[in-house]
Amino acid sequence: MQLFLDTTDVAILKDLAASGLVDGVTTNPTLIARSGRPMFDVIAEICELVEGPVSAEVAATDVAGMLAEGAKLAAIAPNVVVKVPLTREGLVATSEFAVQGISTNVTLCFSAAQALLAAKAGASYISPFIGRLDDHGAEGMDLISEIRAIYDNYDFDTEILAASIRSPAHVTAAALCGADCATIPPEVFTALFKHPLTERGLSQFLSDWAATGQSIL
Ligand code: E4P
C-alpha cells in the first residue's frame, strides 16, 4: 500500500519524508489556502522533495477551464497529478487528460457509482472521502470495499486512494479493504509509528540494559 501525505506544509513534509515512507503527496484548495503561499511555489517545492505523485487540484468547474488549469499544473513537474472534482464536467476533463497522457486524481468521491464513472473516464486515482462519510453518519470504509469489488470485477486500473483519513484505524481498515493508497494528514502519519506498548517495552528494555553496565560499541 502506498502512503501519501495530505499536506502543503513543506517543513512537515521534509521531516516525514526523511523516514523514507512517504510515497506521494496530495493537496487541495483548502490546504493551499492554509499554507498562505502561492500554489505554484508550494507544488513545485513539494515535487522537488518527493519523487512520487503529487496531486494539485484545479479550481475551474467548467471543462475548458479544468483542461487549461490542468495543463498548467502538469507542466510544473513530471510527477504532478491533476486533481479534478467528481462532477460531470470533471469526468469529461478526466477523459481528455487520459488521452493527453496526464495523470488524474478524481476527488470528492462519495459513492461507488461515482467511482465506477471515474474509472470508465480513465482516472489514474479515485479519492473516496472516508472521514467525511463517517461524519455524515455513513460507514465510509464500506465505500472502499465496494469500489474494490467493482474495480476487480472489471479489471479497472484506477487506483483507490483512501482520503479524508482521520486515524491510524482508518489506515488499517483501508489496507484491509484493499485500497491501493491512503492519503494521510501529518498528525495521523506520525501516530502510525506509535503504540503505548512499544513505548513501555522500550523503556523497560533500556533500563534493564543500563543496569547491565554493558556497551555494544
Ligand atoms: C484528499 O485528497 C483530501 O485532500 C483530503 O483527504 C480531505 O480530507 P478532509 O476531509 O480531512 O478535509
How would you describe what is shown here?
The protein is α/β, with parallel strands linked by helices. It has a single domain (2-212), classed as TIM Barrel, CATH 3.20.20.70. The protein is built from eleven helices and eight strands. An eight-stranded parallel barrel has the order 1-2-3-4-5-6-7-8, surrounded by seven helices. Strand 7 (159-162), helix 9 (168-176) and strand 8 (181-184) form a beta-alpha-beta unit. The radius of gyration is 19 Å and the shape is globular. The two termini are 37 Å apart. The model has no long low-confidence stretch (mean pLDDT 98). The structure holds erythose-4-phosphate.
List the helices and strands and how they pair.
Blueprint: E1 2-6, H1 10-17, E2 24-26, H2 29-35, H3 39-49, E3 54-57, H4 63-74, E4 80-85, H5 88-100, E5 104-109, H6 112-120, E6 125-128, H7 130-135, H8 140-153, E7 159-162, H9 168-176, E8 181-184, H10 186-192, H11 196-212
Parallel strand pairs: 1-2, 1-8, 2-3, 3-4, 4-5, 5-6, 6-7, 7-8
Order of the strands making up the biggest sheet: 1-2-3-4-5-6-7-8
Low-confidence stretches: none
The level of helicity is 40-55%
Structural class: alpha/beta
**CATH fold name, please?**
TIM Barrel
Mean pLDDT figure: 98
GO cellular component, one term: cytoplasm
InterPro entries: Aldolase_TIM (IPR013785), TAL/FSA (IPR001585), Transaldolase_3B (IPR022999), Transaldolase_3B/F6P_aldolase (IPR004731), Transaldolase_AS (IPR018225), TSA/FSA_arc/bac (IPR033919)
Pathway: Carbohydrate degradation; pentose phosphate pathway; D-glyceraldehyde 3-phosphate and beta-D-fructose 6-phosphate from D-ribose 5-phosphate and D-xylulose 5-phosphate (non-oxidative stage): step 2/3
Keywords: Cytoplasm, Pentose shunt, Schiff base, Transferase
